[in-house]
Structure formats: C-alpha cells, structure tokens
Amino acid sequence: MTEQTAILAGGCFWCTEAVFNDVVGVSKVESGYIGGHVENPTYKAVCAGTTGHAEAIRVTFDTEQLSYADLLDIFFATHDPTQLNRQGNDVGTQYRSAIFPIDAVQQVEAEAAMSRNAANWPSPIVTTVEEPTTWYPAEDYHQEYWAGEGQRNPYCLAVIPPKLQKLRKSFAARVKA
C-alpha cells in the first residue's frame, strides 16, 4: 500500500469528511483548520472568521486504489467550487473552496483538476490553490461527526445526504460497500 495525504477545504468539514469517509481507498479523514494566521485556532475562533483558517479535511488514501486526480474529481463534484467564500448557508472565508497541495506534483494535479472540472459547472470555479501552512486538527467532537452527532443535527441531515447521493450516483465504483 502506498499512502498519500491530500488537504481539501470544501465548506463545512463535517460535510466533506462524510463524503470522503465513504470513498474506496481512503483510510482516514481528519477534520481541521489550515490557511490562517493564528496558532492553535479553536472552532469558535475559526467560525468567527477572524483567524484566516479554512475548515478542511486531511485525507489519507492508498494510491493503488485511488489516484489524487480521482480524489480531486470527487471533491469538485461533491461541493460547489463556484461559490466564493461560502457553501450554501455557510458564509465566510472559513468555508472557502481550496486545495492545499503538499508537493509540486499535487500542485500540478490541482491546477489540472480545476481545468478538467470547469466544464461541469455553469459558473467559473473559484477554488484557490494555497500553500499548505500548519495543519491544526479540529477538536475531538468534530472527528467522525456524521457517524455520530451529525445524525441528529438538522443542518447535517439537510446537507450531507444529497452530497452522499451525488457521490453514489457519479462515482458508484468508488463507494465503500
């Protein structure tokens, strides 16, 4: 097994975590914060929009089962990369669409994925490709959120199932049984 890491921000990390936990080849998804200017940010501070961080996920995946390019195609298909600093009702730079490549190869792949996926959207993709600054894991109660508390959260119940349906419909061969 050849493991690689990808760091993606596609709005609420509860939503992106739920999607990528269902993808074949993904062994771990961690919610956290990246791209800001405050050390050890808290959820409350990030939500206030004052730290510069994005809610993001750090995905560990097996490149023998899932390529970084395929992972990015799933990312672009399961959130709206045309909304600047928002996803639905979540508004602010902390909900921006961003890719944080960890090396030059991922940088090239990220730019190629944006070009490749542009035709799938009626408006221009506004996803940013940003330097991978320090990663801060989110507080424990955010990890595996959809599998627990998220099932009782009205916001999650409204937003996550349509994302999972899109994953299952568009990437059926990539969904865990």
UniProtKB/TrEMBL annotation:
Ranges for domain Peptide methionine sulphoxide reductase MsrA: 5-156
UniProt-listed Enzyme Commission number(s): 1.8.4.11
Active site: C12
InterPro entries tied to this protein: Met_Sox_Rdtase_MsrA_dom (IPR002569), Met_Sox_Rdtase_MsrA_sf (IPR036509)
Keywords carried by this UniProt record: Oxidoreductase
Catalytic activity: L-methionyl-[protein] + [thioredoxin]-disulfide + H2O = L-methionyl-(S)-S-oxide-[protein] + [thioredoxin]-dithiol; [thioredoxin]-disulfide + L-methionine + H2O = L-methionine (S)-S-oxide + [thioredoxin]-dithiol
Family according to the record: Belongs to the MsrA Met sulfoxide reductase family.
Protein name (database record): Peptide methionine sulfoxide reductase MsrA
Taxonomic source organism: Blastomonas aquatica
